Amino acid sequence: MPDLLILGPQARNPNLRDALQRAGIDGPMVAITAGWQEREGELAALEEHLGQRVHDLRLYERAEGVFAHDPALHEAYRQRQADLRGLQQTYRARLDHAKAAAREMFAQPADSDLTRWARRDAIAALRRLDAAHLGMIERVHARFTQEWRHVLGPLVEHQQADLKHMIEASAAVCIAGGHVAVLLNRLRLFDLQRLVRGRPIVAWSAGAMCLTERVVLFHDHPPQGAGNAEVFEAGLGLLPRTVLLPHAASRLALQDATRVTLLARRLSPAACHTLDEGSMLHWHRGRLRVAVGTSRLLRSGSTSAVEVAA
Amino acid sequence: MSTSADLPADATPGLDALRNAQNSPLVDPGGLTFVYRGQAEAVRLRLWIHGLPATQAFERQGDDDLWVLRIEVPENSRIEYKLEIERDGRAEWILDPLNPLRAEDPFGANSVAQGHGYHRPDWTLRDPSARAGTLEDFVVHSAALGSERHVGVYVPARFRRTRRYPLLIVHDGFDYLRYANLQAVLDNLIDRLEIPPIIAAFTQSPDRLTEYAGHDGHAAFVAREIPELLERSFPLHPNPAARGLLGASFGAVASLHAAWRHPQAFGRLVLQSGSFAFSDIGHHRRPPTFDPVARFVNEFRRRPGLPAQRMYLSCGIYESLIYENRSLVPLLRQHGIEVRYEEVRDGHNWENWRDRLQSALTWLFPGPLWMVYE
Questions:
Q1: What is the pLDDT of residue B3?
Q2: Chain A residues near residue B359 by CB distance under 8 angstroms
Q3: By the 8 A CB rule, do B125 and B191 touch?
Q4: Are B245 and B252 a contacting pair, CB within 8 Å?
Q5: Candidates B160, B362, B371; nearest CB to A179
Q6: Domain A4-70+153-305 is of which CATH architecture?
Q7: Quick check: A37 contacting B, CB < 8 Å?
Q8: Least packed by Cβ within 10 Å: which of A39, A242, B146, B189?
Q9: Residue of B158, B369, B373 with shortest CB distance to A222
Q10: Could you report the per-residue pLDDT of A247-264, keeping only the tens digit for each?
Q11: DSSP secondary structure letter of residue B14
Q12: B2-6, B221-225, B350-354: which range is least confident on average?
């Protein structure tokens, strides 16, 4: 398994260059900035930081080209996205109640078997809801793929050849943050999971979230709404048993033990890792070699710094 | 932030505390104690709180030049006031010399008393780390109004012509910029992803009591002429859900009237402390400037239609307009309009309107906060 570098947000105080040096990754870089949407490919700040040219794989632009080529495909894609939004809204409504029930159970002292059982069962209900939601999403994707495979295949094939060539000529693939749904959809459309196999990957924020098995959306104190963390989609699965939480310091109420314990227990056995400015996790041959500035959410409701096993 | 001295719960300050007070008023959970030091024949608090006397007299403490007044104020209140000092038979209104907090408005400035629990929201202050938008100035000849008008346009940071933007038109727009810090608010909310990048247009009427009082020419100006002007320069989203009007006081009346006269032009309205005078029977009890407003609001109450799909309304409970605003909410809801209504312990002033902008804008124009991790 090649090097995998996971970083916190890079927009203001990037640590990408330091992380690459520390990991011993040197050479030409390609970038995926599809999460930046209209700003895709605006790499001046990244290039200045790295001190070298970076080639963008332009997945957002390539996807727009694919859709422009076949309006029926584009319409079907839009419909799929509308279906997914509908699923998310239904899930969100159910989640509100399940989460409220769990919080209520955790607000009571765990001084009886009944309360302890009720807590476990409230968590189990959340996990069942999350799993059912992911299953429904998978069915929507499978139906779309089944119906449009014959059209999509030829349209993306020559793009994939070009992408493969660019990736193989690089020392690493950088996957930037941004809009996680837009990014994940483009990564899937061009089957990047297959194309990056065996190549070193550096990913941050939304880019890092996409590499996990489950992408979880979260904000504990949004200006509107309840702020319940939501399972959004299956990710590419390149980083198993991990949920990544970028901007945790500003988006999560880490001092709220009930929120932390609910999230940690609901998503276990995956480890929930915070990613803030300066964070770095480096896996080499499947083994965590470096962990800087990142914490794990614990079932107890606290957090602890992620450390590398001796 | 409060620069006033905080006291423990339900503590009325003693004389020593009053003599040594460096700031006024002294704040406790039950109220405010105002302190004035100086020669005077009388000292009075002048404030604009519906339900409280407009003038309240300080009491002199012994033979000192120390004057004190305590008033009960609920938690989270914000109050604007002046002091009236009477000397040599003449009365003068002044800002409180012991209170550095000021709120400016087009008529000058008032001192501000922040009750226990009130904190100025951090998103109302300029954040140096937030990407800043820019302001551009446009001049348009309005056929509907028969004169030239300046329109300020806020262009968000990282503006791209390949993207389509929502449009928010702001009545008393330059006042919102100056007194409600609207540019910093937009920068902050966009940077925090709480609202999407938007184009905002700021209008300022030279005769707002006429043009904002249910004036068809003004309605055409904001519903047709400004959007047409901006569509020539900016990629605007055409969907009514991406078009909004914002206004306070008479500006709220102008917003509702324009959307009512031009249904489908706007899907989102922010109506702050609207001067929605009306009369169920007989004549309204406000000055004559409200006559055209009451004609419009009475007509609106008879046949509201669907001026917008979503409206945010707010009003201070220390405003006399609270009755009119409360009355409007059930009517709007009965006609299928999604309404969010908030009441706060504040008066008819710009800082009240400033403090509600996050709640209003994030509800009407929700940003990509949930989906974007940069």
A1: 42
A2: 223
A3: no
A4: no
A5: B371
A6: 3-Layer(aba) Sandwich (3.40)
A7: yes
A8: B146
A9: B369
A10: 999 999 999 999 999 999
A11: P
A12: B2-6
